[in-house]
């Protein structure tokens, strides 16, 4: 199944950023060790728009700022209905595998670490999520974004099938 990427323009959006992970990288030269930092950041407006970015720099604050700028260039639209996702979804990226399932109102975000940051930034308030395989934050974020990209709401399904909205639920 091919997925269309739903890009979003960043103008007049109020985005909140969340730092998922920071990694210190060491380069050994003949003059000694040189440290630099890589940061993975998730941004979202908590209303269906989310994106992630990677920033690398010699200082932590600069790496985070670069990550935020990169994340603003990679925003996607996620179908969130009544605070949860429309249906179950399984997605893989690298060694990370994620399973996202809708939950009833009041459940909260039952997800760990990197997945929680992505889901909360997207505006999901009630969801059950499980991470299988690798716990690498980079791959978990990318797998979660891939799962959210494959989500389709009832209106989109009806449009793709060329039928009425009521027929989607009967059928």
Descriptive notes:
- The chain is elongated, with a radius of gyration of 18 Å.
- It is of the alpha+beta class.
- It has helices at residues 60-72, 113-122, 137-149, 154-161, 165-170; strands spanning 16-29, 32-44, 49-57, 75-77, 89-93, 96-102, 109-110, 127-133.
Q: What are the low-pLDDT stretches, counting only 5+ consecutive residues below 50? A: none
Strand content: 35-45%
How does the overall form come out from the CA principal axes?
elongated
Number of helices: 5
Strand tally is 8
Intertermini distance: 21 Å
Class computed from helices, strands and strand pairing: alpha+beta
Mind describing the biggest β-sheet? 4 strands, antiparallel
**Averaged pLDDT:** 88
Query: Could you spell the SSE succession in H and E letters?
Result: EEEHEEEEHEHHH
The oligomeric state is: single chain
Side by side, the strands of the main sheet go 1-2-3-4
Helix content range: 25-40%
- Determine Rg (CA atoms, Å): 18 Å
Give a short summary of the structure.
With 171 residues, this protein is α+β, with helices and mostly antiparallel strands. The chain has helices at 60-72, 113-122, 137-149, 154-161, 165-170, and strands at 16-29, 32-44, 49-57, 75-77, 89-93, 96-102, 109-110, 127-133.
List the helices and strands and how they pair.
Layout: E1 16-29, E2 32-44, E3 49-57, H1 60-72, E4 75-77, E5 89-93, E6 96-102, E7 109-110, H2 113-122, E8 127-133, H3 137-149, H4 154-161, H5 165-170
Parallel strand pairs: 7-8
Antiparallel strand pairs: 1-2, 2-3, 3-4, 5-6, 6-8
């Amino acid at each position: 199944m091919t997925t269309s990427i739903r890009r979003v323009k960043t103008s007049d959006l109020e985005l909140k950023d969340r730092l998922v992970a920071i990694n210190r990288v060491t380069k050994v030269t003949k003059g000694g060790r040189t440290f630099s930092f890589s940061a993975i950041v998730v941004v979202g407006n908590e209303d269906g728009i989310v994106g992630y970015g990677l920033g690398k720099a010699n200082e932590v604050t600069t790496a985070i700022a670069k990550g935020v700028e990169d994340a603003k260039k990679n925003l996607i639209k996620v179908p969130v209905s009544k605070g949860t996702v429309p249906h179950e979804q399984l997605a893989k990226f690298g060694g990370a595998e994620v399973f996202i399932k809708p939950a009833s109102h009041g459940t909260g975000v039952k997800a760990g670490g990197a997945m929680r940051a992505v889901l909360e930034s997207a505006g999901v308030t009630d969801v059950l999520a499980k991470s299988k395989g690798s716990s690498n934050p980079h791959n978990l974020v990318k797998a979660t974004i891939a799962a959210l990209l494959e989500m389709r709401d009832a209106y989109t399904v009806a449009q793709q099938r060329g039928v009425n909205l009521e027929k989607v639920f009967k059928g």
